[in-house]
User: Fold these one by one.
Assistant:
Number 1:
Amino acid sequence: MENRLYDLSQMMPAPPAVYHCLRTPQPPHLNGNLEKPVWQKAPHSSRFVDLVSGQPAPLETRMAALWDEACFYLAFWAEEPDVQAHFTRRDSFLWLENDVEVFIAGPDCYYELQLNALGTIYEVFYIWQQALKRGSFFDRPEFDLYTHEVDVLGGYQDSSRWGRHPRGRRWAFLDWDFPGLKWAVRVEGSLNDSSDLDRGWTVELAFPWKGMEVLAQGRPLPPQDGDVWLMSFSRFQSLEAGRRLEPAAGWALNAHGVYDSHIPECFSRVVFSRKEIEL
């Protein structure tokens, strides 16, 4: 099943990035430490760029991904001289301070995960309103509009420039949690201590394929050799120059050309390969 995409290339300063996701012969032990061989052997992405302009981000940020028969694995390296994170309650608005984010798209839906240096997470599952109908793939209890915490996402967040997305509005299921999700964070420095210089923080994530069913919408799980999935890898960073700058800086594996993370057409292309890393 193909993703139902519109041609929005006019908003992008360059084509979406392509990342080749290799297979791992052994699953990583999730503790946030990316010095382990499995992540050193995985292909590391290019440096993240400004979400709008495509210029290199001032703080180095990269990602890597792997897969096996059980899970899709993801890692982030985030340079930060003063690692700060204060939200501790799950599903807090992490983008208001500093976070890393991943979006995973299906043909008629997408999933958003945010994570800060304390290990606090925020999750939402979005379904295009035109796709959520009685008798459709999403006609199931977990997406019942009357029994779940649901919001509406309209057009582009930067609507002053681009107006509405051609597919219209999305239902945002705020209480949806990815089944079996695991994660770990490691801070290289002193969290919330501005008296010293930190190196940054790192993240490991494991998404079980069983939890991907609603995102796959009938696509093979795990993906077959050569299958392409749309995913966005990004980071939002609160910056100060005498005062806190608004909005927060947004960096991603590839630019969207607009300050908005919610455009599947602009997501990076993840190509799954049966080639294994060598440990």
Note: DSSP finds three helices and 14 strands in the chain.
Number 2:
Amino acid sequence: MKKIVSLLMLFTIVTTGYAQKYGNTPKDSVDCIMNNSLYQEFYNQKNYKDAYEPWKHAVAACPKNHVNLYIRGAVILKNLFVQAKTVQEQDKYLDELMALYDKRTEAFGQEANNIARKAKDISDLRPNEKERAYNFYKEAAEKSGVNGIDLDDQYKPLYLKACFDYLHSIKANEEQMTPLFDAYDFAADALDASLKQAKESQDEKAEAKIKEYIAATEQIIEPFASCDKIVSIYQPKYDKESSNIDLLRKITTNLERKGCTKSDLFFKATESLHKLEPNSRSAFMMGQMLAVKGENRAAANYFKESLDKAEDNDSKAKACYFWAQTLMASDQYAAARSAFYQVSNYDKSKEGECLYFVASMYLSSAAACATHEGKIRGAAWAAYDKAARAKALDPSIADKCDALMRSAVGQWPTTDNAFFYEITNGQSYTVGCWIGETTTVRLR
């Protein structure tokens, strides 16, 4: 009691200039300071019933005083909702909670997150109101900016889950499942963007958390992610709107994510998209499509186009890697080697794997590039060198590097051959043919 009286005496002598920090008028400031102190006392004791009234007065007096007014206010209202004895009481507190998030947006911004908070609270407090929760999440996603940048990552899989729950509640058929894939597109793309940002900033904790959200997202969509189901959902839409760029993006993205690149729909949608909107991604998908058909030379051209049009290192690394693979598959070894070397300019972590493929091409060329009636296969020495370097750079591929190195040793000349052709162990040797690389003589 003495504390309250002292506070009241203090508030009566608050100057106008000082008071303006807490409200629009000196009276607001007095009300703000007093009610903040009162509600926090009760709040810290988890006496939410008695905290309620002074908290409401504090929000009214100084809505921009501190974000804790809204964080703690949500806790108060949710606890009062749970303690309510009638549906009418629950409705009262729930309506106040929804309005509180609007006030928080007015005071501190973050509209998308506050709408998502509404959605989560509806899901928790009124689990039967699935459509309402889904609509809030959908609105939050729509207001979240490019790649969902303004929405906390935790809400992205929850949006997909809410959509799934809503569609399940209305017993949606396959023709009604498009919203589920719209929610999946948003969540997957937004989380991919967040993961990329976390990697660039080297925030390992954030990266691990985002990967958990990605795993949750994939788990939710998994029952609907078979190629047959995705095709059955999108084929009729493609037949009606084959020039709809947004639809084509969704079709190709979902089919690519789920490994459905052999489907006719993927081929058709990819071709349509690349004609209407040729860019790095559409060129990459054209390359994928042709590679699946075994048309590697044509695929290589599209992967090169994708590389040339890519704007970020991740996309460049991916396009360059596939470009190198298709050049190798079409026996364009020299060009493939150059492409494999280029990959590490965009993603250093792939250098070891790319060197392994260079070693494979060297070994494949050992017979064709051999000298002295095929006895001196210098390419096998060069292949061994590359594989050893690849293993040192990337221990995860050690087994296949070891296997290649054993194969290379099997093609080294014997001591008898070396004597006959005047080469000695440890001697420098330049491999001719397309390889053109200097290595060291080693004998069996």
Note: The first helix runs from residue 2 to 12.
